[in-house]
């Protein structure tokens, strides 16, 4: 099953950095195991453009739509047997210590 894992900042990061694994090791391990399909770091939230259409009119806004202290800074697409495996993959990600990870299953619309 495929999962989108949003990598987000958090206002309460882990303070003991000695426990945090490296992103290079996490990527290498999950790429080798075939669990990481794709992933990337995203540009700054300030570089975002929000697109909406209301009453047939195009509305553009600079930056993220919501005012929030936590922002999405990256993503990974995971291929896992089930949610339990996806949770274990997320648990080992460095941002599980310094930020937060949101897992969402892909929905098959066919």
What would CATH call the architecture?
2-Layer Sandwich
- The poorly predicted ranges are none
Across the major sheet, the strand order is 2-5-1-6
Q: So, the CATH homologous superfamily?
A: Dimeric alpha+beta barrel
Q: How helical, in percent, are the residues?
A: 10-25%
Distance between the termini: 15 Å
H/E element string? Answer: EHEEEEHHE
- For the report, how would you describe the main beta sheet? 4 strands, antiparallel
How much is the average pLDDT? 90
CATH topology: Alpha-Beta Plaits
Rg of Cα set: 16 Å
Helix/strand/pairing class, anyone?
A: alpha+beta
Written description of the protein model:
The chain is α+β, with helices and mostly antiparallel strands. The protein has one domain (about 1-105): Dimeric alpha+beta barrel (Alpha-Beta Plaits, 2-Layer Sandwich), CATH 3.30.70. It is built from 3 helices and 6 strands. The longest helix is centred in the N-terminal third of the chain and has 10 residues, at about 25-30. The mean pLDDT is about 90. It holds the Pfam family YCII. It comes from Actinoplanes nipponensis. InterPro entries: Dimeric_a/b-barrel, YCII. This is Transcription initiation protein.
């Amino acid at each position: 099953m495929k999962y989108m894992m949003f990598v987000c900042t958090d206002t309460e990061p882990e303070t003991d950095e000695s426990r945090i694994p490296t992103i290079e090791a996490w990527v290498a391990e999950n790429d080798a195991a075939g669990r990481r399909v794709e992933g990337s770091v995203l540009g700054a939230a300030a570089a975002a453009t929000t697109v909406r259409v209301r009453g047939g009119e195009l509305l553009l806004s600079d930056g993220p739509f919501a005012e929030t202290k936590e922002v999405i800074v990256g993503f990974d697409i995971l291929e896992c047997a089930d949610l339990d495996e996806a949770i274990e993959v997320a648990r080992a990600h460095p941002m599980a210590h310094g930020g937060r990870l949101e897992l969402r299953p892909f929905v098959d619309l066919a």
